[in-house]
Design brief:
Distance between the termini: 52 Å
Shape: elongated
Number of domains: 4
Radius of gyration: 37 Å
Strand content: 15-25%
Structural class: alpha+beta
Number of helices: 20
Number of strands: 22
CATH superfamily of the largest domain: Histidine kinase-like ATPase, C-terminal domain
CATH topology of the largest domain: Heat Shock Protein 90
Largest sheet: 5 strands, antiparallel
C-alpha cells in the first residue's frame, strides 16, 4: 500500500511562541489567511491544554509533540509538530495533520520509540561520561541506510547530514563497520580515505578520530553501529575498545527488544483491524440472510397483489365503459404502481445487503432523477435546498435502475449530512460530454475506459468539506465516517459505478464543500432501442394455443397468475411444487410450449425440477421466478438449461413478453 504524504506545513516561530511567518499549506489547513495568522502569537492559536507541550517543544525539551490548532470553522486541526531548525532567537517547525486513528498510532509509536531512543541516549551518555571530551553516536540500520538513534553531543547539522545516508564498504567508520560487520578504527579522520566524503563535516563538528563497533541481534543480523569520536587524532586504548564492544552488545539487545515490541504492537493493531473487518463482514452476511428471507416472503405477497390487480383490470376490461369502471381502473393502476415500487424497494434492500443482481436496461437519466426528488426532499433538512441542473435533451444509459438510484440518493444523503443543521444547498446536475482516452485515464488511471460520450452526474454541496486523510480512505472497503450501520459505503458506490463501466471521483475543500462526479457511458443516439410495442397488441405477439406449465407453492399466485395468463389465450397447467411439475411434464413432454416455475418450492426446488425437465425435453424453454434474488439462479445452471429468470413481483405483461421471447429464441 502506498503511503500518502501531504504537503508539510512550515512555521517560523520565536522561542517565546510568536508567529514570524508560515507557508500557504499551513494557511490552507487552518482556513485563515497568512495575514490573519500573523496577527496572533502561535501559542494563542493552540488550545490551552496543549500549550505546555508546545512550550517544551520550543525550548528544546522534547523532539516532537501532538497539538491542536484552531481552525476558521471554529473547530481544531490535529498536528504533529517537530523542530526542524533551531537558531538563537527563533526556530523552524515542521507540522503535519493527522486524523484520530493516526493520532493514536502516533502516540503508540511515541511510547515505544521513546523507550528505545531514551535507552540509546542513556547509553550514549554513559559512554561519554566514561570518556570525558569524547562524543558518542549510535546509528541504526534501516533498508541499507543510516537512521539516527542517538548523538546527544554532536551538532544537529552533523546528525542531520548523515541521517538517511547509504552504508557501503568505504563509507566512514560506521558505514564500513555495518557493511562488513567488523570494528573500524579511524585514528585521523582528515587523512583517512574512508572519511573523504565527510571530512569537512567532521572538521566543522570538531571531531578528528572515530572508532566504530557494529551491534547485532541475537541471530547475528547487523542492526547498526556505535561510534566514539575523539576531539583530536588518536588511537584508542584497549580499555576503550573493550568498552565499545561491551556497550555495542548491550545496544544490540536494546534495539532488538524495542523492534520486537514495535512488531508486536503492529501485529496487534492488524489483528484488531482484521477483527473489525470480519465483524463487519459477518454483519453484512447476517443482514443478507435476513434481507433474503424477508424479500422472499414480501415479494410473494407483492406478487400476489400485483397479479390479482392486473387480473382485475383484465376482467374489468370486458365490461362496457362507464364512469365507475374508469374510477376502479384508476385505483387498480395505483395498486399496481405501488406494487412495483415495493418490489423496487426490496431489490434495493437486497442490493445493499450484497444479495442483489444488476438488471441492466436502457434508462433515461431524467426519469430516474424525477423518482428521487420526492423521496429525497422528505429526508432533507428544511434549511437545505436541493436544486437540479439537468441536460435538456433525453439522456440514456445502460444500467440497473435500482442501483443507480441508490448511488444518486447516497451521494445526496452524504451531501445533506455534510451540511448538517446549517443552511445549505445541494445541486444535482447532468450533462453529456465526449471524453478522450487521455482525459479518462487522468480521472481513472487504473481503468481502461474507452473514449466516447459519457453522462456526467455531479452532486455538489456547500457543506463542511472533507479533509485530506479522509479523502485518501473514502473509497476503501469497510471505511465509513457514518455511525455504525448507516448508509451505503462509498466503496460499494464505487463498485456499482465500476460495474456499469463508469468512474467516480471527488473534489473537496474544508469549509467550502464537496463535489462528487460520476461518469457513466451514454447510449449513442444511433443505438437507442425503439420502444417495443405493447404486448397487449395482438399483432405483436401470437399467443393463441400455447400450453404453459406453471408451478408455484404460493396458493394466491397459483390461482392469480394462471388465470391472468388465460386472458392472453394461453392454456395453463398448474403445479403446486417442483415434483408435481416434473410429473406433469413427464406425462406429456411434447405438449408444453414453455415451463414457468418458482425457484423456492418444496419437494423439488426450481433448479432440481428444471434439470429433470431439461433432461426429458431440451426444446422446451424454462423460466424461473424468484421471490428472493436472481443472484445464484443463473450461477446454478448450465446456460443451455435456463431461458430466463425473473424476480418477483413480476408484471403479467413482463411475464408474457418473457415467455414469447423464450419460445421464439428456442425455435431459432
Amino acid at each position: 500500500m502506498t503511503k500518502h504524504v501531504d504537503l508539510p506545513m512550515i512555521i517560523r516561530s520565536s522561542k517565546a511562541g510568536g508567529f514570524i511567518r508560515t507557508n500557504a499549506s499551513f494557511a490552507d489547513k487552518v482556513g485563515f489567511s497568512l495575514k490573519e495568522i500573523s496577527e496572533k502569537p502561535l501559542l494563542d492559536w493552540v488550545i490551552i491544554e496543549d500549550r505546555a507541550l508546545l512550550i517544551d517543544l520550543l525550548e528544546g525539551k522534547i523532539e516532537d509533540c501532538y497539538i491542536r490548532h484552531r481552525t476558521k470553522d471554529g473547530n481544531f486541526i490535529k498536528l504533529i509538530a517537530r523542530i526542524s531548525e533551531r537558531q538563537e532567537s527563533d526556530c523552524l517547525i515542521l507540522a503535519r495533520s493527522i486524523n484520530a486513528k493516526a493520532q493514536r498510532k502516533h502516540l503508540g509509536n511515541n511510547s515505544e520509540e521513546a523507550n528505545v531512543k531514551s535507552t540509546l541516549h542513556e547509553i550514549a551518555h554513559i559512554v561519554e561520561a566514561q570518556n570525558p571530551g569524547y562524543k558518542c553516536s549510535i546509528l541504526l540500520l534501516e533498508d541499507g541506510h543510516f537512521v539516527k538513534g542517538a548523538g546527544p553531543s554532536l551538532p544537529e547539522d552533523y546528525n542531520y547530514a548523515i541521517d538517511g545516508f547509504a552504508i557501503g564498504p568505504t563509507v566512514g567508520s560506521c558505514g564500513t563497520a555495518i557493511y562488513w560487520n567488523i570494528p573500524v578504527i579511524v585514528c585521523d579522520i582528515q587523512k583517512d580515505p574512508l572519511w573523504l566524503p565527510f571530512a569537512e563535516l567532521a572538521k566543522k563538528a570538531d571531531v578528528h578520530a572515530c572508532w566504530s563497533h557494529p551491534f547485532t541481534s541475537k541471530s547475528g543480523r547487523v542492526l547498526g553501529a556505535l561510534a566514539l569520536y575523539s576531539p583530536e587524532p588518536r588511537t584508542p586504548t584497549v580499555e576503550q575498545l573493550e568498552l565499545l564492544k561491551a556497550i555495542a552488545g548491550m545496544t544490540g539487545l536494546a534495539v532488538e527488544r524495542g523492534r520486537a515490541e514495535e512488531a508486536l504492537r503492529i501485529k496487534h493493531e492488524q489483528a484488531l483491524e482484521l477483527e473489525n473487518q470480519l465483524r463487519q463482514a459477518a454483519k453484512m452476511e447476517a443482514l443478507g440472510v435476513l434481507a433474503g428471507g424477508i424479500a422472499h416472503d414480501f415479494n410473494n405477497v407483492m406478487a400476489s397483489i400485483l397479479a390479482n390487480s392486473e387480473l382485475s383490470l383484465l376482467i374489468l376490461d370486458k365490461f362496457p365503459d362507464q364512469e365507475e369502471k374508469i374510477e376502479v381502473e384508476l385505483k387498480l393502476n395505483e395498486i399496481i404502481t405501488a406494487s412495483h415500487r415495493a418490489g423496487n424497494f426490496c431489490k434495493q434492500m437486497l442490493s445493499y445487503a450484497g444479495r442483489g443482481k444488476a438488471e441492466k436496461k436502457q434508462s433515461e437519466i431524467g426519469e430516474l432523477i424525477s423518482e428521487i426528488d420526492s423521496l429525497v426532499q422528505a429526508a432533507l433538512s428544511k434549511k437545505t435546498v436541493l436544486q437540479f441542473d439537468l441536460e435538456e435533451k433525453p439522456t440514456f444509459v445502460i444500467g440497473d435502475e435500482n442501483q443507480l438510484l441508490q448511488v444518486i440518493m447516497n451521494l445526496i444523503t452524504n451531501a445533506a449530512e455534510s451540511i448538517g443543521n446549517n443552511e445549505g444547498r445541494i445541486v444535482l446536475s447532468s450533462k453529456v460530454e465526449d471524453y478522450t482516452v487521455d482525459a479518462l485515464e487522468k480521472l481513472s488511471p487504473n481503468d481502461d475506459l474507452p473514449a466516447g460520450p459519457f453522462v456526467r452526474l455531479t452532486v455538489t454541496d456547500n457543506g463542511s468539506g472533507i479533509d485530506t486523510e479522509t479523502k485518501i480512505r473514502l473509497f476503501d472497503p469497510f471505511y465509513t465516517t457514518k455511525s455504525s450501520g448507516r448508509g451505503l459505503g462509498l466503496s460499494a458506490v464505487k463498485g456499482i459505478i465500476k460495474m456499469h463501466g463508469g468512474v467516480i471521483y471527488l473534489k473537496s475543500e474544508l469549509s467550502k464543500g464537496t463535489s462528487f462526479t460520476v461518469l457513466l457511458p451514454a447510449v449513442k443516439s444511433d443505438d437507442l432501442k425503439e420502444i417495443q410495442l405493447s404486448i397487449d397488441d395482438d399483432s405483436s405477439v401470437q399467443k393463441a394455443g400455447k400450453r404453459i406449465l406453471f408451478a408455484d407453492d404460493e396458493p394466491a399466485l397459483l390461482l392469480a397468475i394462471p388465470e391472468a395468463l388465460k386472458h392472453y389465450d394461453y392454456d395453463v397447467v398448474k403445479a403446486a411444487d417442483g415434483q408435481e411439475a416434473v410429473d406433469l411434464f413427464c406425462h406429456s413432454p411434447e405438449s408444453f410450449d414453455c415451463v414457468v416455475m418458482d425457484y423456492n418450492m418444496p419437494r423439488l426446488n426450481g433448479r432440481e425440477a428444471a434439470e429433470r425437465i431439461f433432461a426429458v425435453n431440451q426444446a422446451v424453454p424454462i423460466i424461473l421466478i424468484s421471490g428472493n434474488s436472481n443472484t445464484g439462479i443463473n450461477d446454478d445452471f448450465d446456460e443451455t438449461i435456463l431461458s430466463a429468470s425473473l424476480q418477483k413481483p413480476v408484471a403479467i405483461g413482463q411475464l408474457v413478453e418473457t415467455i414469447e421471447i423464450s419460445i421464439t429464441n428456442k425455435h431459432k
